[in-house]
Each structure stands twice: as structure tokens, then as C-alpha cells.
Amino acid sequence: MNIANIYNAKAEFDQTRKWLDKAHDLASKISLGETSSILSLNIEGELYQLQGEHHKAIDIFNIAIDLADKEVINESLMQSLSLISKSQRALASKGSEIDIKDIFKIEDLRNKQDDLRSKLVNKLDYKSLQVLLDKEIEIHYRDIKQAEIDKERSTIIKWASAIILLFILVLIGTAIYLKSEKTTYETKVRKVRDLLNEG
């Protein structure tokens, strides 16, 4: 459907039709959700609209509108309403008769969608949302600060471990050196004793 929409925008209507047919074929094999079905119908209706076939476009948009859930904020429905109004205006500008009931039906549906949006906005408590947003920002920065502290600790632990390891290696090296020096000293002392004992 998206590909069909792209070809529609480029005014390559044969390609649009080809991809819409593929979409319809696929839709007959699987169950499309409401949004996908309406999107497909809107693209098809717009195909007719762009070719000046406004009566066909209106028929398709009406099918989309009938499918749409009108009790919730519905962006797909809003698109259908906008597109059907465009075709109605195009027909009216050419002097074609438009049933006034159809125009009022579309306007009523658009007003209902606007009312649903207004109710949603009125239900939102902006102060509560601001407090929640501030809290989320505070938590985010606290997490970042904690991550930096953890990283710093990790670096300190790595350096401390390296220093301790180096210290242990120096101790082992010193112990080996001292043992070797002691052994050399004892060997020399033994030789001196042996020489003194012989004499």
C-alpha cells in the first residue's frame, strides 16, 4: 500500500493500480485490520481523485468511512473525511450536484472527531504531566550521574588492582632478589670458612 501511495504522489497511476491490485489480492488472503483497510481504500480513492474521477473516489471514501470506528480519535477516518471533502468540492466547482445530506454527514463526522480531541485535551492535567515529566528528567539525570559514578569507581578499582598487582610483583621480585643475594652471600661465607678450616 505504501508503494501504491508513492506512485500516486508521482502521478504514475498505472503503477498505483498495479500495487493496489497486489494489496487487494493479499488482503483477500489475510485479514487486514481496520486501519490498514481504510488506508488502502484512501489510497484507491485518491487514485480516482487524482485522475478526476471524483464520483468513484467518493464511493471508495464512503466505504472507508463506513468501516472506520467513529467513537474514538481516528486519524485514518480524518484522512478519509478530508479526501472526500476535496472530491465534493471538486464536483461542486464543476457544477455537479452534491447531496447536501452527504456534505452535512461529513461535516458532522469531522466535528465529532474534533470534539473527541477537545475532550482528550481537556482531560489532560498539564500540571500533573509537567510534574511527571520533571520527575522523569530527574530520574534520567540521576541514572546518568550514577552511571558516571559507577564508571569512575570501576576505573579506580582497575587502577587500584593494577597498583596492588604491581606492588605484589615488586615484593616477589625483591624476595627473589634477596633470596638470591642471601644464597650468594652464604655460598661466599661457606667458601671463606672452608678456606679457614683448611688452613
UniProtKB/TrEMBL annotation:
<keyword id="KW-0472">Membrane</keyword>
<keyword id="KW-0812">Transmembrane</keyword>
<feature type="transmembrane region" description="Helical">
    <location>
        <begin position="159"/>
        <end position="178"/>
    </location>
</feature>
<dbReference type="Pfam" id="PF13424">
    <property type="entry name" value="TPR_12"/>
</dbReference>
<dbReference type="InterPro" id="IPR011990">
    <property type="entry name" value="TPR-like_helical_dom_sf"/>
</dbReference>
<protein>
    <submittedName>
        <fullName>Tetratricopeptide repeat protein</fullName>
    </submittedName>
</protein>
<keyword id="KW-1133">Transmembrane helix</keyword>
